[in-house]
Design brief:
Blueprint (H helix, E strand, L loop, with lengths): L6 H14 L7 H8 L3 H13 L3 E3 L5 E3 L1 H29 L2 E8 L2 E8 L15 E3 L4 H11 L9 E4 L6 E7 L8 E8 L7 H16 L1
Antiparallel strand pairs: 1-2, 3-4, 3-8, 4-5, 6-7, 7-8
Helix pairs in contact: 2-3, 4-6
Length: 214
């Protein structure tokens, strides 16, 4: 901790992060051990966070993330979606396929913005709010590839076929260099394979979105 930071705020944020990383909640004693502070401090932190609905405690006394965190999160997605829409519209019209921005939500990939092409006779129906495991589909796999990537350049794009919907292929590239945002930009189309030009075009769109979010 430096002189310019708040120790109490730091501890409160650490409590939220710890609770966000567990599905079954944590007791005061468990939080005390993980934070390295006494139980009285933890009680005060939880009481303050509960006042703002950021934490709730069940009948057994285990603390969990509260609904207030969801309300905060809902304000973030519209801002990200708005910034991404121009690049997604251009991508969808250029490729003639459904374009999407996908963000990490726990262990899932969550589509937060979707743009369908206006000139095609048919395209894949892909809706905002659709979620799937990170290790299935191009959007999630691109994010995982970025996590494993080293500093030697851009991780590139990912291609998949039939992992989320029979007969559908996908291409996605991760957002790179955007602080606090982990996600990807991609397209999904009804095709046996992704045309050669699609991957590089998706990569360009991901860079456009990343620039818009910086």
């Amino acid at each position: 901790m430096t002189a310019e930071t708040s120790q109490t705020l730091d501890r409160g944020l650490r409590v939220l992060k710890l609770l966000a990383d567990t599905d079954h909640g944590l007791t005061v004693t468990e939080l005390s051990n993980k934070l390295g502070v006494n139980r009285t401090v933890v009680y005060r932190l939880l009481a303050t966070l509960e006042q703002h609905a950021l934490v709730r405690r069940d009948l057994g006394g285990r603390a969990r993330v509260g609904l207030g965190v969801l309300r905060l999160g809902r304000q973030v997605h519209p801002l990200v979606r708005e910034a991404a829409l121009p690049a997604l519209r251009s991508l969808a019209e250029d490729i003639g396929a459904t374009a999407h921005l996908t963000l990490v939500d726990g262990s899932d990939a969550l589509a937060v913005a979707v743009v369908e092409p206006t000139w095609t006779d048919y395209h894949v129906a892909y809706r905002a709010g659709f979620r799937h495991p990170l290790d299935r589909g191009a959007a999630g796999r691109a994010i995982l590839a970025a996590r494993q990537h080293t500093a030697a350049g851009h991780p590139g794009y990912t291609l998949t076929h039939g992992e989320l919907e029979a007969g559908a292929s996908g291409a996605a590239a991760p957002l790179v260099g955007v602080s606090g945002v982990e996600g990807s930009v991609g397209v999904v189309m009804l095709a046996d394979a992704v045309p050669e030009r699609v991957g590089p075009r998706v990569l360009d769109a991901a860079r456009e979105v990343a620039d818009a979010l910086r």
